[in-house]
């Protein structure tokens, strides 16, 4: 009699540890905290602008000296995130959050309380910029720490609303304080708004840097509030999570000159420069040409602002959906970060159309609704580009997410500064129509860069199935 054959049980592979051990509610809570923190840098710069003429009298200084305080702020805003982001990628996020936001908070309290002095204004504007700008790049690092790539674009879309809406809402808020009796309240408002966010970071936001705490399992079961710790010791085995290289100019240059990253960096900077030039032109276009009041000019910024807000959220969800669809069709194949980039083609085309229309609608003084609609289209295109490029870059360099986002910010700020400096001469020599047509053509040229990436980096699967 034959013995019955033993049935072989199929091998079951135990699932690996979760990418992040934090609950969904805590992830969303932490996302809200870092989004609020990232809002202050762009907001602080924009709140200051409506009072520039007033500050000439308050600080008894010339126009060029007051404008220099803006230049100093922008210079620090462009460069400081590189240092702060590198420190956050290497030594921990929370320490840098605590130091930088404390600098921002103290600077605003002093500006709101001490006697008006131009020297103090310059020094405290430096501390303002240092404190506010670094948290934007660190926030992208925190998002990378706690959200897996499949959901990262949606999370980044929410986080990036701060940097995108700050320049839009800043003039509206700052305009409320642009009087001789209320100018200090511009800084008081920033201090009051920053205080609860700082306390949330201090007592509620844990350290998330993966090479220090892994997937956060050690914090996941703790309560929502904990005693603040300035420095977090390493809680994971050496080598389990990759550590970034030590900060160096060589490493930054290497990241900037990697061909794919270089194209994405330059494309984003060129497109943002065009949008920023549009922002700079608003006072002249709506104030001088159409007779809008100062307050009405501020409201005009809501057109691209609302468009940015809605397009960012939609782009993040679509980008993650597109990635999930590719993953479902290719379950055994690693999804490349480049598969997010074809979405940018739509963004560049919409941005180009918006800029060209804005230029010619302005040139022929068409109804304000036409120009505002065109500016909204430019905002939609920029949002698509911004969200997808940030998602792509954080997937390419997860251990240096804050640094790579800071590098992108550096190039965008340089491009914005150049565009602000040359806008008057460009418009005088070319007129609004041809000036913005040229900016739109730059967006069209950027499409060629995306096509080159998809062809040379093996991302054609993502391109063909978009």
From TrEMBL:
<feature type="transmembrane region" description="Helical">
    <location>
        <begin position="185"/>
        <end position="205"/>
    </location>
</feature>
<protein>
    <recommendedName>
        <fullName>Major facilitator superfamily (MFS) profile domain-containing protein</fullName>
    </recommendedName>
</protein>
<feature type="transmembrane region" description="Helical">
    <location>
        <begin position="299"/>
        <end position="320"/>
    </location>
</feature>
<dbReference type="InterPro" id="IPR011701">
    <property type="entry name" value="MFS"/>
</dbReference>
<dbReference type="GO" id="GO:0005886">
    <property type="term" value="C:plasma membrane"/>
</dbReference>
<feature type="transmembrane region" description="Helical">
    <location>
        <begin position="262"/>
        <end position="279"/>
    </location>
</feature>
<keyword id="KW-0472">Membrane</keyword>
<feature type="transmembrane region" description="Helical">
    <location>
        <begin position="65"/>
        <end position="88"/>
    </location>
</feature>
<feature type="transmembrane region" description="Helical">
    <location>
        <begin position="155"/>
        <end position="173"/>
    </location>
</feature>
<feature type="transmembrane region" description="Helical">
    <location>
        <begin position="429"/>
        <end position="455"/>
    </location>
</feature>
<dbReference type="InterPro" id="IPR020846">
    <property type="entry name" value="MFS_dom"/>
</dbReference>
<keyword id="KW-0812">Transmembrane</keyword>
<feature type="transmembrane region" description="Helical">
    <location>
        <begin position="95"/>
        <end position="116"/>
    </location>
</feature>
<dbReference type="Pfam" id="PF07690">
    <property type="entry name" value="MFS_1"/>
</dbReference>
<feature type="transmembrane region" description="Helical">
    <location>
        <begin position="367"/>
        <end position="389"/>
    </location>
</feature>
<feature type="domain" description="Major facilitator superfamily (MFS) profile">
    <location>
        <begin position="30"/>
        <end position="460"/>
    </location>
</feature>
<feature type="transmembrane region" description="Helical">
    <location>
        <begin position="401"/>
        <end position="423"/>
    </location>
</feature>
<keyword id="KW-1133">Transmembrane helix</keyword>
<dbReference type="InterPro" id="IPR036259">
    <property type="entry name" value="MFS_trans_sf"/>
</dbReference>
<feature type="transmembrane region" description="Helical">
    <location>
        <begin position="29"/>
        <end position="53"/>
    </location>
</feature>
<feature type="transmembrane region" description="Helical">
    <location>
        <begin position="122"/>
        <end position="143"/>
    </location>
</feature>
<dbReference type="GO" id="GO:0005275">
    <property type="term" value="F:amine transmembrane transporter activity"/>
</dbReference>
<feature type="transmembrane region" description="Helical">
    <location>
        <begin position="341"/>
        <end position="361"/>
    </location>
</feature>
